[in-house]
Design goal:
This protein is an alpha+beta fold and 303 residues long. The chain has a single domain, classed as 3-Layer(aba) Sandwich (Rossmann fold). The protein contains 10 helices and 8 strands. Strands 1, 2, 3, 4, 5, 6, 7 and 8 form an 8-stranded mixed β-sheet that branches. A hairpin with a 4-residue loop joins β6 (230-235) and β7. α1 packs across α10 (282-292). The longest helix is centred in the first third of the chain and has 17 residues, at 83-99. The chain is globular and about 50 Å long.
Length: 303
């Protein structure tokens, strides 16, 4: 579930660069339409079935009520008793798409909720206001981290009224520096184009220190990231990773924390960013790298 004004950084970048794209929904994923594409972008989605955990702040808002009703009707129409069960099927479809060679790029809450939904495939983590019945009291112990793309050993946020899904994310309220755009920065790692061509492409930029920006999921705790994952950017001196990349099957995934690189704290009701005012945005450059990455052709190596 997304607020009605939740303009996504990637769609803004695609439209500004005049790159054509299609929007796919749950139905199209279930029908196997993903295989008609090379690249999939996820942004503010909540794959756990908790409607973005906006309940505490927006349960009475018309857009929240309308979206919940719409998603419940769609789940029923597609043969599911709960939205959360539909989302689990969707994440499995995306998992298979990546395993078969697809490119996945996710930002904001689509990063951690995707992995949480995979880990919670066999248990109910949604409270009564989200799916009509209480969650499994043993949900935490039933998580299967082996199914996750990027994260492991995380702890669920069991409070249904707290605007967090797990301890993967470092919320701004927990870190004073993240509440001040003047002091919030993250740093790109350097890679060798010869030995690490993909991370090199994904981190290519005109600067290596970038302004931070908030999202429902902003940073990833380093100690909860699988050892097989390549870290692309971090907040120096802290256990915070902003940008990461990995392989799954024959495909790849890239997770980028935060909502909008040029809107430090994008709030419900804020207008979308005008990219004409930010032509050299290093934060958006990382998004563009991911848009162009699937089009890069590997050169044939000499033997």
């Amino acid at each position: 579930m997304s607020p009605p004004d939740s303009s996504h950084g990637v769609t803004l970048a695609l439209e500004y660069a005049e790159i054509k794209y299609d929007k796919l929904w749950d139905k199209e994923v279930l029908e196997g339409k993903l295989y008609e594409y090379d690249w999939l972008h996820l942004h503010h989605e909540d794959f756990t079935g908790q409607y973005g955990k906006f309940y505490a702040s927006f349960a009475g808002a018309s857009w929240y009520i309308e979206q919940q009703v719409m998603q419940e009707k769609e789940a029923t129409r597609l043969g599911f008793k709960k939205v959360s069960e539909l989302k689990k099927t969707v994440v499995r479809g995306i998992r298979d798409f990546v395993a078969n060679g697809g490119f996945l790029f996710a930002m904001c809450s689509a990063t951690d909720t995707y992995d949480i939904a995979l880990a919670a495939e066999a248990t109910d983590i949604c409270d009564v206001m989200y799916d009509g019945d209480p969650p499994d009291p043993d949900a935490q112990s039933r998580l299967d981290f082996s199914k996750c793309f990027a994260f492991t050993d995380f702890t669920l946020e069991r409070n249904p009224l707290r605007y967090e899904y797990s301890d993967i994310d470092q919320p701004p309220s927990d870190l004073l520096a993240m509440q001040n755009p003047e002091t919030d920065y993250f740093t790109l790692f350097e890679f060798s184009a010869k030995f690490d061509p993909v991370p090199t492409m994904l981190t290519q930029n005109h600067v290596n220190v970038l302004k931070g920006f908030l999202g429902q999921t902003t940073n990833f705790k380093k100690n909860l990231i699988k050892k097989s994952v390549v870290l692309l950017a971090e907040r120096e001196g802290m256990d915070q990773v902003r940008y990461l990349h990995g392989n799954y099957g024959r495909g790849t995934f890239t997770f980028y924390g935060g909502h909008d690189p040029e809107d430090y704290q994008h709030a419900v009701g804020d207008p979308p960013t005008d990219l004409a005012l930010h032509k050299n945005s290093p934060g958006y450059r990382l998004i563009l790298n991911n848009i162009l990455f699937p089009a890069a052709k590997k050169k044939q190596q000499k033997t």
